[in-house]
Amino acid sequence: MHPTTKAIRTQADRTKEMEHSSPLFLTSSFCYNNAEEMRAIFADEIDANIYTRFSNPTVQEFIDKICVLEGAEAGFATASGMSAIFASFMALMKQGDHLIACKSIFGSTHSVITKILPRYGIEYTYVDANKPEEWEAAVKPNTKMIFLETPTNPALEIIDIEAIVALGKTHNIIVNVDNCFATPIGQRPIEYGVDLVVHSATKWIDGQGRVLGGVVVGRQDLVNEIYLFCRSTGPSISPFNAWILSKATDTLHVRMERHASNALQLAKALEGHPKISSVIYPFLKSHPQYDIAQKQMKNGGGIVCFELKGGLEAGQIFLDSLELLSLTANLGDSRSIASHPASTTHAKLTENERLDVGITPGLIRISVGLEYVDDIIADIVQALEKS
Question: Is 306 within 8 Å of 357 (Cβ atoms)?
Answer without folding.
Answer: no
